[in-house]
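Minutes, project check-in
Item: structure for the 143-residue chain
Input as provided by the requester:
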Amino acid sequence: MKEESLRAIELEMAILARRITTIAQNRKDESLVRSAYLLLHQISVKGPSGVKDLAEELQLDISTVSRQAASLEQKGYVKKIQSPSDRRSYFFELTEAGEKEMKQYRNIRREKVANLLHDWTDEEREQFGKLLNKFNEAMKSVK
């Protein structure tokens, strides 16, 4: 990799991380935090899931996912169901309220992204999405 490319990418990532943190701190009025949204999304995509599977997929520790899931359960966004294979364990399943909240939050986020990228071409947006996905997949291997 060329040193200049690496320098530019490293700097832009640092700036991006700072701006995302700043934006997140200014969003006290949003009903879901990013971690809750990602947890709901994962359950929505994969179906009922256990804490261990959710933790592995989201690269979080089990205690963190347990706390987040308990908070979502209190809000009525997920419910516990018994595991069909092990009656001592349980899965979290998305409720109608959770599905509704997740979709609403997702739409708000998509609208904000659309506003940021409004003057990009369709080709630029498509390429950016592909590159972000590729980068996120590479990040899975970082411990």
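Outcome recorded: The longest strand covers residues 78-82.
No further action items on this chain.
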